[in-house]
Amino acid sequence: MKGIAVIAAISLTLGTAASVQASVDFADERVEWVVPFKEGGGSDTWARFFAPLISENLPGQPPVVVKNIPGGGSTKGANYFDRRAEATGLEVLGTSGSTQFPFLLGDRRVNYDYENWTPVLASPTGGVFYVSPELGINSAKDLVKLRGESIKYASQGATSLDLVPLLALEILDIDVHAIFGMKGRGAGRLAFERGEVNVDYQTTSAYLQKVAPLVEEGKAVPIMSWGVLDEDGNLQRDPTFPDLPHFAEVYEMIHGTKPEGTAFKVWKAFFVAGFAAQKGIFLPRDTDPEVIEAWAKAVEDTVASEKFKSRAEAVLGNYPQAVQAKAAKAFQVALDMDDSEREWVRDWLSTRYHVRF
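Above: the chain sequence. Below: its structure as tokens.
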């Protein structure tokens, strides 16, 4: 991509949470929050959790109404926002890793550009990789035993968020047979429960609600998390799963050295875009700085509120939300991929999974 500096410069616009100018008032207005996914999915749930809380903190307390525009793996709704949103503060976009991935891959359906948007929130999540007890492994160090075994994974598609686990297994030299066509990660989990596949991953909220009971029943064995990023951009253990090693630790367990090289750089880029900065709230870049400041302060007040803190862990997991300048920095990292790395991952997807670009 070009112009990462533009995204980085957003932090200069946002600054710290200062007093919002009295001229910004959304009373008697309505905010439309475009969510480029259907109702009931993870992004829709995330947006509907945040919407009423942010409404309470915006000047004038306007209702924040979610508008679902699904299609094209979220590219339809993102294209719609990029083309039609007015820079008034009354239209915002919620993105997900499924919006970031096509942008990173140069998908021809993408007519949007993150340079055209200003982020005010980056919302992270985690992911846990687990296996069937029938494989006979109990921890990450046993993963080498899976080499040469029949490993099956139910996938939405190689260019979906499943790119992260598929590339992780490739880097660990574990051959996996991906069974494509799943309508969502929930469908993949059900295939695991039915015994049709023997490895799976779920994002934090789904894992806590749907997989943790399977672990307690002895029907699933957690192996590793993808991890989280510290302020220096290094992988650390996921605070929601502190007893599980993160992916870089597992790599070192198996290979005896720390991960490096193009494959790992690509994996990390998609991990950040799909998990560490998985979801975001954006306004059109040309929005008045005072309006951006009003939104940034509303988001900051929201995540600092007791109402948010008392409810968030059950819905979002135990992750700090990145607001204002930190959100800009998170998306700068998430969308920073050079041409050689993009060419590498496109070639890998085409060769390994017959993806056509």
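The radius of gyration is 20 Å.
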